[in-house]
Amino acid sequence: MELPAVLGLVLLLHLPQIRATQGILHAVGDGVPNTGKDYCITYNSSWTTLPTSYANANYYKLENISSIWLCSESELPRTDLKNKAVVVMVGNCSILDKALIAQSRNAKMLLVASKDGLPRPTDNRSGYESLTIPIAYVKYGDIANMEQDVGRNINVTMYSPSPPLFDYSMLVIFLISVFTVALGGYWSGVSELEDLRPSHNTGESEGGKKKDENVTFTPFTVILFVVICCVMLLLLYFFYKWLVYVIICVFCLASALSMFNCLSALIQYIPYGRCRISCLSKSAEVRLIFLALFCAAISVTWAVFRNEDRWIWILQDILGIAFCLNFIKTLRMPNFKACVILLGLLLLYDVFFVFITPFITKNGQSIMIEVAAGPSGSTEKLPVVIRVPRLEYSAVKLCVMPFSLLGFGDIIVPGLLVAYCRRFDVRFTSSSAYYISCTIGMCHIFRS
């Protein structure tokens, strides 16, 4: 596998969280008993105050008149809107005009259906102080499918759970990142120690092979590395729907190879099952053949079921950890100068693509966020993150991100620095002072 393809996979995502005022629309119908489903809504908290639980909220019968805009009294059908939750279509007038008309007909709730995502309700006009009914945006597709989801005679309510005081999924992310960085750095030191040992007879060719497996960065290759990351990010921004499958294929191959390298390094310490078989003048241990098949099977399983969010995240995290470990061990920084250049360039990379590009793009969105979230119509996501499901139910989990995420780059980049410190200890000191102090420093960075 070409090194640029793997390098382009590493630093695509440093994902900022998207913040908005989200709430939950809870709908129940006369379908299967106890049938209920939650849908994402957006609202303005300065106009609408929602309860924190649907158990404490009032339910209203849903009246779907999304065929009209509700911009004038003449549009209203003869249907009675009293004590109902009314759904109308976005457009032609402000949300305030729609709400005042619905309120004048004694409606208890206004839902504005949008076919283009969920905008946040904003309006500079005065008059919202006279509103007494809650108003929110909802996806038109959710309204259209609601009867199929929960049955007929639908009753709805809106609520917004309080955000959790502590996100326990972030603790899992923290432990994974620290474990990967510390172990990857230690493994790099072990590899360095093996390279420093004098080769003897039969072990000489094997030692030379191990050295060839490692890639040492120079200041020039560091700059080339960052340039490749920029090019890959721009290509994904413009050609996402095609290149996402290329990234998936590269991830499958690279993660399977990385898992094999990680597990084979452990298997070599097991003094059993060393029998070999020969084929075409080459020989291999049987246990390594079975290990290669196992790693390939894990990677293929992830590729087939990659959109099964309920459990596939476990395999993605395992493959991702193996990928990061192997990358930290294989890629070597020659000196501290190269580390400073890499970290400085990546800082500029993040700042430009997150904070500067919104002033350049037509839609005002940063290129990094667009690539991270993927196009709105795409179900495929880039597999370059460690992800853990959020344990607490909230509007953010439903509307924005059901997983806590950490990009591979956020693990590999500090891991390269820790690995350099570990190799420095092996070469020039008899202790692990630099390795331990750098790992502790990385713990404080991940904690923040």
Summarize, please.
This protein is of the alpha/beta class and 448 residues long. It has 14 helices and 13 strands. InterPro entries: PA_domain, Peptidase_A22B_SPP, Preselin/SPP.
**Terminal residue distance:** 35 Å
Please state the structural category.
alpha/beta
Biggest sheet features: 7 strands, mixed, barrel
Q: What's the helical proportion of residues?
A: 40-55%
Rg over CA atoms: 28 Å
Shape: elongated
Strand order of the largest sheet: 1-2-6-5-4-3-7
Strands, total number: 13
Question: How many independent structural domains?
Answer: 2
Mean pLDDT: 85
Topology as H/E string?
Answer: HEEEEHEEHEHHEHHEEHHEHHEHEHH
Low-confidence parts: 1-20, 200-208
Tally of helical segments: 14
